[in-house]
């Protein structure tokens, strides 16, 4: 079956009409090329999206107070309430499985009036009152100085950490930042650190660097917030799902603020874990579509090979008759046709894989010359498992493509074949 004569015969048969062979092989080449490129593009998009979550505690949600939508215990519909610091402690005590419950307050400066001044420079920035844990919930690289610590919280120090975007607007290039003062809504804060957000892809990537962080207690004191909490960032422990725990968190808030248990509008939330899982599901669907489309294109190429092999068998009817008359077994005839089909399929398929690999190498080289920190597409590639699957598909496709022509070949009767002109 794998003798030198057999392979010589295969090469001679395929090269006798080389233009037809090349056109036939192109269908399989294009099919496997499309399959690999689609899967690599899906991985590139997935890598780019997941880069946005780098360092972020994805098992988190953000929660804020909204207007009550149902009357309850004599209290009217539509009333407004606020989270309080006591709520934070109650949630920690009553809901097991939570890792962080971080209260936050915020002064909105995005696209608003100037709320931060330094000398003659001013700007509109988001200012957050936070606890130290927030850096473990949202990705942030401290580029100089430090972040808020519990000594700052306890002593209500008026210190601030500013983003690179704030620094570019309020400071001259090369100017010392640490130890300088900025005025937030008329209150002086000393800058103790600078940061750069990481993994924040999308249209707001630049705005994410234009934020200021101060201790939660200093924020509350400076801007007369008392014990009010604007919103909370809540992260579950490993092994727990914030999506499953959030109903318990809502129940604590509803009980403490006399909200109807059935009022689902009173507590606003953004479930990052749920959204992250949706994204993972989307990429699973994209990979399925890539396989589906790629295999359909590949099947069209395989059908082309099967048709050509039928023509080849028809052209070699007399040769097959002579071989049968000389004692060739049906299996030897069948195996010869199948080998030709598999050989043509694998060679053309491997050419498609090599071509796709070259295209991906070129794309990755170009991406390597660019700043991809804010891109939604990163490192398009396929793993060795996909290549192995592609090879299996090629072998099976070659067998299927040659099966019908091989069966037709062994049905040729020697006497009738020898009469064929």
Question: What's a concise summary of this model?
Answer:
The protein is an alpha+beta fold and 421 residues long. The protein has two domains: 4-53 and 277-419, no CATH class; 60-272, no CATH class.
Task: Identify the notable features of this structure and list them briefly.
transmembrane; transmembrane transporter activity; MacB_PCD; 14 strands; ABC3_permease_C; 2 domains; alpha+beta; two-stranded antiparallel ribbon
Number of helices: 12
Order of helices and strands: HHEEHEEEEEHEHEEEHEEHEHHHHH
Category by helix and strand content:
alpha+beta
The major pleated sheet works out as: 12 strands, mixed
**Mean pLDDT over the residues:** 82
Description:
The chain contains twelve helices and 14 strands. It has helices spanning 4-15, 18-51, 85-94, 150-155, 164-170, 216-222, 242-256, 272-315, 317-325, 330-368, 384-410, 414-419; strands at residues 60-65, 83-84, 98-107, 116-118, 121-123, 126-130, 140-145, 159-163, 181-184, 187-197, 211-215, 228-229, 231-236, 267-271. A hairpin with a 2-residue loop joins strand 4 (116-118) and strand 5 (121-123). Helix 2 packs antiparallel against helix 8, helix 3 (85-94) packs across helix 7 (242-256) and helix 10 packs antiparallel against helix 11 (384-410). It is elongated. The model has no long low-confidence stretch (mean pLDDT 82). It is a multi-pass membrane protein. The chain crosses the membrane at residues 21-41, 288-313, 342-363, 383-404. Pfam families: FtsX, MacB_PCD.
């Amino acid at each position: 079956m794998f003798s030198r004569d057999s392979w010589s015969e295969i090469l001679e048969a395929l090269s006798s009409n080389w233009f037809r062979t090349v056109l036939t092989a192109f269908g399989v080449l294009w099919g496997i090329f499309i399959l690999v490129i689609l899967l690599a593009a899906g991985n590139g998009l997935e890598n780019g999206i997941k880069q946005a979550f780098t360092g972020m505690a994805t098992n988190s949600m953000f929660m804020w107070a909204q207007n009550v939508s149902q009357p309850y215990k004599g209290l009217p519909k539509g009333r407004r309430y606020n989270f309080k610091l006591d709520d934070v402690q109650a949630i920690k005590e009553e809901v097991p499985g939570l890792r962080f419950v971080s209260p936050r307050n915020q002064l909105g400066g995005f696209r608003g009036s100037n709320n931060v001044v330094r000398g003659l420079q001013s700007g509109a920035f988001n200012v957050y009152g936070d606890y130290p844990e927030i850096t473990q919930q949202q990705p942030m690289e401290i580029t100089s100085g430090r972040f808020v610590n519990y000594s700052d919280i306890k002593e209500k120090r008026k210190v601030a950490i500013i983003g690179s975007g704030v620094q570019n607007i309020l400071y001259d290039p090369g100017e010392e930042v640490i130890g300088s003062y900025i005025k937030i809504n008329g209150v002086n804060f000393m800058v103790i650190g600078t940061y750069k957000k990481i993994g924040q892809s999308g249209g707001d990537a630049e705005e994410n660097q234009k934020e200021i962080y101060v201790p939660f207690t200093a924020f509350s004191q400076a801007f007369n917030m008392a014990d009010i909490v604007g919103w909370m960032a809540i992260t579950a422990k490993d092994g727990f799902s914030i999506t499953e725990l959030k109903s318990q968190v809502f129940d604590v808030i509803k009980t403490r603020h006399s909200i109807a248990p059935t009022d689902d509008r009173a507590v606003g939330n953004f479930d990052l874990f749920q959204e992250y899982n949706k994204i993972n599901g989307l990429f699973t669907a994209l990979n399925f579509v890539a396989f589906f489309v790629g295999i359909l294109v590949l099947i069209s190429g395989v059908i082309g090979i099967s048709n050509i092999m039928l023509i080849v068998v028809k052209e070699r009817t007399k040769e097959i008759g002579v071989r049968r008359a000389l004692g060739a077994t049906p299996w030897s005839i069948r195996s010869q046709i199948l080998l030709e089909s598999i050989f043509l399929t694998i060679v053309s398929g491997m050419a498609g894989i090599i071509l796709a690999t070259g295209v991906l190498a070129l794309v990755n080289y170009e991406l390597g010359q660019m700043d991809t920190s804010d891109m939604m597409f990163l490192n398009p590639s396929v793993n060795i498992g996909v290549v192995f699957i592609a090879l299996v598909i090629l072998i099976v496709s070659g067998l299927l493509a040659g099966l019908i022509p091989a069966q037709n070949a062994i049905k040729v009767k020697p006497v009738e074949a020898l009469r064929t002109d």
